[in-house]
């Protein structure tokens, strides 16, 4: 059985989504089959997915053992089998059953995206609709945005401001103070160092400018447009409130050891230059100077908790933000200098 736009639109809340949103949802849908008598899910469980009935009969059993029977034969059962997590009911297959599932977190993101896009009607009219949806889609799929509350994402799409730019226009220069966070909606751009060497190429959906905002420092590179395009700009205050603060977490040395021993390994990162840690550093910390962190990211283990020592000033915040943007579990280690050892 294939999930089509028409079929998906019979279910809530998909019946409220745009065609483009439905297309994104279909890419993430999974089909699952259960034999008669199988438990689809149990009451009281945290579920990362939501379940929708496609074919068959299911009994939903609550804590008092009251049974609600649902069937696809009476027409599509157009709601989640259980919208809560932890689940409030158990779901038992009373016949061979086919369901489709989708990640709960992804559905929240799509709903926020859809709501934000509808409220931004004027901006949509001023730009090419398909391009706007592409940059939004790229943002929602980035690791950082998986950590942002859906309410914040909806606010973000309301507060982004479109800004038209010309070919060869310089968007930001090295040494300037940071004022905006940027997302490239249309066009292409390059990131250059002070010698004019190419550091990166940017395409729609790529974002930049966050480091100077997080660290409250100056820009460390130049961004120049290759073609005409449209940038979506977010003011510094909105960036800090909606994008930085929700992922900025702190942890003590003792909490880190306790958490890591229960869940996974941890690594303390020191982003100072080697000279700064020559005599004092947190024992067993790994030195990755901030200017080398980006190129080191592919070598890091996603199963490790990373704690960035707070002894590097604004560089600490920038490093933690970069790690979180790349999808790592990263926090800031409080009072790192209280745990210094001799190097």
Structural overview:
30% of the residues lie in helices and 28% in strands. The strands form six sheets. It has a five-stranded parallel beta sheet. Strands 2-6-4-5 form a four-stranded antiparallel beta sheet, with no helix packed on it. It has helices spanning 5-8, 19-28, 104-119, 121-126, 129-141, 150-159, 210-215, 236-244, 253-262, 290-296, 314-325, and strands at residues 30-34, 39-41, 49-55, 57-61, 67-71, 90-93, 97-103, 161-165, 170-172, 180-186, 189-192, 198-202, 207-208, 222-225, 229-235, 250-251, 266-270, 280-281, 286-287, 305-309, 329-333, 341-342. It is α+β, with helices and mostly antiparallel strands and 343 residues long. The protein folds into three domains: 5-103, Jelly Rolls; 120-245, Jelly Rolls (Sandwich), CATH 2.60.120.10; 248-342, Oxidized Rhodanese, domain 1. Helix 2 runs antiparallel to helix 3, helix 3 (104-119) packs antiparallel against helix 5 (129-141) and helix 6 (150-159) runs antiparallel to helix 8. The radius of gyration is 24 Å and the shape is flat.
Overall pLDDT level: 84
Distance between the termini: 62 Å
**So what's the overall shape?**
flat
CATH topology of the largest domain: Jelly Rolls
* Overall CATH class of the largest domain: Mainly Beta
**Which sheet architecture does the biggest sheet show?**
5 strands, parallel
- In the residues, how many domains can be counted? 3
| Count of β-strands | 22
> Unreliable segments (pLDDT under 50, ≥5 consecutive)?
116-132
**Strand portion:** 25-35%
Percent range of helical residues: 25-40%
């Amino acid at each position: 059985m294939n999930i089509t736009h028409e079929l998906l639109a019979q279910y809530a809340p998909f019946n409220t989504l745009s065609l483009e949103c439905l297309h994104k949802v279909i890419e993430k849908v999974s089909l699952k089959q259960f034999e008669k008598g199988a438990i689809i899910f149990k009451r009281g469980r945290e579920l990362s997915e939501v379940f929708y009935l496609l074919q068959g009969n299911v009994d939903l059993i609550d804590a008092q053992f009251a049974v609600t029977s649902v069937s696809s034969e009476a027409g599509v059962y157009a709601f989640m089998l259980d919208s809560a997590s932890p689940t409030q009911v158990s779901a038992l297959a009373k016949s061979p059953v086919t369901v489709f599932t989708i990640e709960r977190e992804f559905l929240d993101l799509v709903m926020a995206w859809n709501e934000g896009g509808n409220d931004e009607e004027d901006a949509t009219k001023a730009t090419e609709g398909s391009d706007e949806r592409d940059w939004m889609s790229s943002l929602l799929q980035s690791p950082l945005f998986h950590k942002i509350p859906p309410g914040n994402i909806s606010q973000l799409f309301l507060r982004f401001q479109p800004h038209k730019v010309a070919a060869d226009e310089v968007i930001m220069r090295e040494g300037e103070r940071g004022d905006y966070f940027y997302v490239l909606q249309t066009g292409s751009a390059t990131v250059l160092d002070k010698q004019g060497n190419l550091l990166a190429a940017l395409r729609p959906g790529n974002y930049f400018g966050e480091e100077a905002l997080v660290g409250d420092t100056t820009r460390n590179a130049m961004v120049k447009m290759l073609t005409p395009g449209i940038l979506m700009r977010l003011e510094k205050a909105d960036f800090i409130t909606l994008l930085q603060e929700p992922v900025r977490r702190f942890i003590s040395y003792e909490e880190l050891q306790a958490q890591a021993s229960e869940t996974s390994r941890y690594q303390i990162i020191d982003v100072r230059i080697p000279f700064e840690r020559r005599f004092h550093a947190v024992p067993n910390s790994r030195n990755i100077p901030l200017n080398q962190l980006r190129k080191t990211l592919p070598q890091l283990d996603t199963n490790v908790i990373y704690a960035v020592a707070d002894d590097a000033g604004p560089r600490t915040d920038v490093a933690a933000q970069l790690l979180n943007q790349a999808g790592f579990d990263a926090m800031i280690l409080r009072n790192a200098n209280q745990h210094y050892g001799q190097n």
